[in-house]
Amino acid sequence: MATQPESSNTFFSSPSKETPIIKLEGITKSFPGVKALDNINLEIYRGTVHALLGENGAGKSTLVKILYGIYTPDKGQIYIDGKPVRIASPMDAIKLGIVMVSQSPVIIDRLTVEENIVLGLEKFNMFAPTRRVRSKIIEVSKTVGVKIDTTTEVWKLSYTQKQLVEIVRGLLLGARVLLLDEAITYLPLEEKSRFYKFIRQFANEGGTVIIITHKIPEAMDVADYITVLRRGKVVGTVPVKNTSIEEIRKMMFGEKSSEITYERLPPGNPGEVLLQIEDLWVKGDFGDYAVRGTSLKVRKGEVVGIAGVAGNGQKELIQAVMRLRHVDKGKIIFENVDITHKTTHFLRLNGVGYIPDLPAKYGVSIENTILENIAIVPTFSSEIINWKRIRALALKMIKEYEVKTPGPETPVKFLSGGNIMKVLVARELTAATKMLVAYNPTRALDEATAIKVRKIIKSKVINENIAALIASEDLDEIFQLSDTIVVMNSGKIVGVFPAEKAKREEVEHLMVM
Amino acid sequence: MEFPISMVIVRRVKPLPYWIVPILALVVGLVISMMILYVMSGGQTTPYDVLLSIYYGFTNLGLLAKTFALLVIVGIGLLVSFKGAIWNIGGEGQFYMGVLLAAWVALFTGFAFNELIGKTTMILMALLAGAFWALLAALPRAYLNIDEVPVTLMMNYIAYYIIDYIIMARWRERQYGYYRTETIPETTKFQLIEGTTLSIELLLLMITIFVLVWLMFKYTSLGLRIRVLSSNPNLLRSSGISVHLTILMALTISGMIIGMAGAAYLGSVSHNLSYPIEEKTPGYGYAGILVAWLSMLELIGVPIAAYIIGALHTAGINIQIAGAGGAAVVNVFIGSILLTYAVLITISEYKIRIIVKKR
User: Fold this and answer.
1) CATH of the domain at A208
2) Is the pLDDT of residue B5 over 70?
């Protein structure tokens, strides 16, 4: 059962005899137009893994940013080891042993792993021997099972390796409390479970981990306690062993939780072929072929879902279709026109919407407003921008997708990660009058919103008879959304199934074969 | 052995309020200038003299007017490329190519027979010349990703020496044998507003350019694309907009506007070209960089910054007249302020901490 935090327990000892390592009392934080956190009371204990769960914009990120000194609370008090503290900057937080690792690694690409870690560490200076750094990296990477050569430049590393570098840096800073802000959410499944092992070990050795995530299974897998936030308030804290996915869902979404379902959405009605890919060969970032002779068809009124483990050529295939990557061999035909050498602009003017991976990097410009992020797409504006029309469109999108924002003039950087994704999805679905091309279209979204987005995509496919080509690393998404499931492995298509006949085990087997 | 002192640079979570930087840069930069001038003049130019000159500079509007208007135009021109994070350091070259072509129209084409046709052609040709000069740097930047900063900078010197050559070897006036061209015909001289150094044509040009650039950034896709170019070029790509073309347009339009300032300079200030051309102006192309920076890349800030820099320019000349230093006094002001600005903008975003370890 969810225990409601008592706001009146300030003067009484807490039920546990132990002093919590972190105690938050009445933390409140407002931003222009939104109350992000409203009287938060929370206790976190040494040696535990504590997950903060909540839907997009629930206040999770704001809360950890307060703990890390990026924001200061308007009201309330933080206690560390029972003593009241003021955390005014990340430097203060680090001195208290609190270190944050975020979802986008904050490391310098051109420096080596060692240099990155040494940089900014107060304990070392620029001429310090790097031996300790090296041995710590080796130690941690052994636990996690990801190999890193400490003398390589960071730009050569994979996302997983970069996250590892960040964590090692945190440990070398003397972290007692690790704040992981969606830091492992986007790792490939297998590597994720290795990180869980590391987190568990860190906690067993007396460390404390606070994990921020919008994925319930992730929290259930790794945490000891789950605190659910909703609209800036604590709904409750529960020990993982006494709870269930359904209970957490209810705490997160309230009545909306009943809408969460992973049943297949109603099937489309495939008509004539709109997109045809013939024997496509496309090179990856490092010059070797990432797509190796792929052929597939997408029909009007059909969702084709590409399943596969990240890094098997899906990204390159999607980019080639969007004409963002050079095609070395083969043909792409759209509406009976050979588009192999046409531009992205041509596709945009012909009703193709595109949801790229890593939305903040490729899909929006966070410095610009929501309005500007819509107006920039040629589908919505010609040489002269009709702001009145863009504004009307924006307001419609904000309403339909429940984007939490003070208004359409707000710069996108002030929105939460999930709301940024909503802006992108809304824009691209509006742009997609003939076809939608997407890569992980819902990965930054919480369950309820993700399912809502899938429903909108599917109903658009059915009602407006558009075609959709969607690659996703989330098999639930592939199975829920697709009419045809295509499995991609090592740049080749290794299986094509009509969704109603596809078996999960079989697809999973082909993915890792 | 560990070194006892180390330096740590950390990004500020909350940058300092952005209006503090230009104001502080001005104050600190001026204090530094006063110290330099005091030392260099052997104690003859006191801070009091400098302050008096600055007061004179800020209040003598008639004298200030032409510098102000030219700096507004050049500043706006640079702003167009700076907004796209394309660093056009070639304002000087684009300005002088504008001057050159405007002079060619006025002296050699016969368009000068009619006042309106003559002046319009001068401005148009100067516009094309500035655009062409910028395009030469824009093409390698857009298509070969060659850094525009050294290229535009070096193009300034190429422009200087081409024009110097033309003045000396081709267009030199014969009558008195000075190192200069003939004076442009009366019909092509811009009409000065009484009691000022400003011409009607220059004023109109400044207002027109201000309004057009405002409209461009407010209502056109091109303006938005240039802004997004600096914030996230990846978004341009995935939206189907050519990044190459956007870079090309940003830099070319920038040169175009600055070229027009060149025509206005010829028509209302110099009336001829004289050798060596690079020493005949206070360097509007470089001063414009300071104007654009002090404006914090806001169009509305350009006239304010141009007023301040224009006033300091007048102040500098005033100190020269009073006998301190040569033509370089103006550059002492500009250099000190720009340097202070560069340091402050870094400090506003990054904290630098020196840590001394106790043994």
Assistant:
1) 3.40.50.300
2) no
